[in-house]
Amino acid sequence: VSYLADRENGWLAEMKWEDVLSLGEQQRIGMARLFYHKPKFGILDECTCAVSVDVEYALYKRASELGISCVTISQRLALHEFHSQELRLGENSDSKWGLYSVGGKEETEEASSQVAEKEYENRLDTAELHWYEWLGGMVQRSPYLDIQH
Description:
By secondary structure, this protein is α+β, with helices and mostly antiparallel strands. The protein has helices at about 5, 15-20, 25-35, 55-65, 110-135, and strands at about 40-45, 70-75, 85-90, 95-100, 140, 145-149. Helix content is about 45%, strand content about 15%.
């Protein structure tokens, strides 16, 4: 996008992006800002839908090289190399979502099971804490809730 300074009367020109830049140019400048700030995470919502696949690849490669973990919202099914998981919302299941390994292996049931198990453990931890507090903190060991204090 270095050509934009010459095309638009220099770096100090003040204009509305949407009036002078194509969507692809806007997206590339947005990614350049991401690279400049180098956050640990970037939430990218359709940030490359108007650039070519090779430019999209180069942008995600650069983000990876800079150590930026990308959370991408996209309708494109590309760039699996730069992502490890895919979360699909609106799945035809009880949970209405599915978690997939990007390598193509379906992970939904296992991941859903792990999430459900973790939620259950968190609820038990909370229940144990409330039970312990209810008894005034005097319980040494509860055979029902497996509390050890």
